[in-house]
Amino acid sequence: MRLEGKPVVEGRARGELLVTREPLTFFGGVDPLTGVVVEHGHELRGHRVSGRILVLPHSRGSTVGSYTLLRLAKRGLAPAGIVAQRGDEVLVVGCIIAEIPMMLVPSLRELCELGSGRLAELRVERDGAVLEVL
Amino acid sequence: MHLTREEELALEGYYGEALSIAMRVVVKVAEVSGAERLVPIKHAHISGISFRNIGEEGLEFLESLASKGARFAVPTTINPGAFDLEKRAEMNVEEDAARGQLRILEALKRMGAKPTLSCTPYLYERISFRDHLAWSESNAVLYANSVVGAMTNRDGGPLALFEAIAGRAPLSGLHLEENRVPSLLVDFSAIRSRLLESGLIGVAGLVTGRIAGSDVPLVCGLSFGSEDEVKLYLAAVGATGGTGLVLLEGLSPDLKHLRFSEHELERFAVDWSAVEAELERYSGAGDGVAVVGCPHLSRRELAEILDWVRRHGGAKRRLILFASRAAVEGLELSEPSVEVYADTCMVVSDLPKYAGRSVVTDSGKAAFYLASQGNAVRLVSRGELLRYVVGERG
């Protein structure tokens, strides 16, 4: 499967897909010291975002969440790449300062049907972005 | 998106790495929000500077920006930090946490920040109608837009930092006249006098925020005793709602300029049960420590409260006031039974370390956040809070 999207942060990433239909709170919802989702009631609770290509609609909560992405990256625990439906401020600012490749897609339907676990490659360039599920 | 030649040069790194990173962030956020161009700003206010939240990595990032030559292009103020710089011992701040916070402050100062450490920049900074600003801290954003008629989005702390360096913000959201038009009407007329008598203006703010969500409301039927009550009200709106602008009948300068037809707005008439429902959420703890100053107290409020407590024989229960350094330094009277802290507040400091986990407050915003941090919170009017403080222990 090959999905084209809108580039936000350039770069290349390879990793297992971690897919959620629910918005994720980074500040307070992802442990910056371990990369594990700790948000109460979230379907990804207990999963580790580290090294994954995280697929989500958008983030929510405090804008300190951008720093959470940075903290994860400095510890080598950040997602390898992010595919989102909406480029909210926390994700855009966070991915730029943490240097996490990011692209936007109009719909998450296909990826949600596919679910987590498959290996994928994200390639984001200035003029285009693509997610290839291997 | 259109960029000026100057902005392109900055983006490409002609003026150094730091400005290039800042410009990249601002341009990306602008692109994603559909802005056609950037707009020069007059002032920036940065939140999210607490060491407890951004950690060692956030601190190092700020230091590296400062070392790469990042400088704020416009006057820039900063939100409260984790403790009162002169009363660290009283607040039981640990050595490492203190050192981290001071290094953050130092990095921000190197970039040119005024170390105001207050959430009420609108009381001290010169901002005017239709100035474009890059402010984070929701109560400040709401005040600037709603009372001054300045234009700022409800930016996050990290974005405001980069906007301050770039001297620009995306021309989107509340920077555009067309997005400042109300889409609903919140009407307090039916309970106007009851609200006034009870002094529960902060609770009215929580109600407004819940109704408005992220939309711009027109609000009528509220009476404010002072500017200080307006800030208490707006701060509470910002806690329960995502909006950055509230159009207050008889007060908001935007209302003289915007064109819309009021009778077409969806109307929400507020009755007393909505106030009671909010109070119900914060009805814990009968005997907590009284905390006041969210948003930071103005000079006048601080003097009024201390004077009132003194005239009533001093505080019999613990009362902690939070204000900006500027307000505290201007103070001529003192009341030894009352604690006054500057540079910080009850929400961003480690409150349980010096005040326990049970509090009484007059601030809807503080009640909202302190409850979410797991404290037992009772929300009352300021009058009731002060009577509680000077009353004999039950």
TrEMBL record, chain A:
It comes from the Archaea. Pfam families: AcnX_swivel_put. It is an enzyme of class 4 (lyase). Its EC number is 4.2.1.182. It catalyses: (R)-5-phosphomevalonate = (2E)-3-methyl-5-phosphooxypent-2-enoate + H2O. One of its GO terms (molecular function) is lyase activity. SUPFAM superfamilies: LeuD/IlvD-like (SSF52016). InterPro entries: PMDh-S-like, PMDh-S-like_dom. Keywords: Lyase. Residues 24-103 form the Phosphomevalonate dehydratase small subunit-like domain. Heterodimer composed of a large subunit (PMDh-L) and a small subunit (PMDh-S). Component of a hydro-lyase that catalyzes the dehydration of mevalonate 5-phosphate (MVA5P) to form trans-anhydromevalonate 5-phosphate (tAHMP). Involved in the archaeal mevalonate (MVA) pathway, which provides fundamental precursors for isoprenoid biosynthesis, such as isopentenyl diphosphate (IPP) and dimethylallyl diphosphate (DMAPP). This is phosphomevalonate dehydratase.
Automatic annotation (TrEMBL), chain B:
It catalyses: (R)-5-phosphomevalonate = (2E)-3-methyl-5-phosphooxypent-2-enoate + H2O. InterPro entries: PMDh-L-like_dom. Keywords: Iron, Lyase. Residues 1-383 form the Phosphomevalonate dehydratase large subunit-like domain. It comes from the Archaea. It is an enzyme of class 4 (lyase). Transmembrane segments: none annotated. One of its GO terms (molecular function) is lyase activity. Its EC number is 4.2.1.182. Heterodimer composed of a large subunit (PMDh-L) and a small subunit (PMDh-S). Component of a hydro-lyase that catalyzes the dehydration of mevalonate 5-phosphate (MVA5P) to form trans-anhydromevalonate 5-phosphate (tAHMP). Involved in the archaeal mevalonate (MVA) pathway, which provides fundamental precursors for isoprenoid biosynthesis, such as isopentenyl diphosphate (IPP) and dimethylallyl diphosphate (DMAPP). PANTHER family: DUF521 DOMAIN PROTEIN (AFU_ORTHOLOGUE AFUA_6G00490) (PTHR36577). Belongs to the AcnX type II large subunit family. This is Phosphomevalonate dehydratase large subunit.
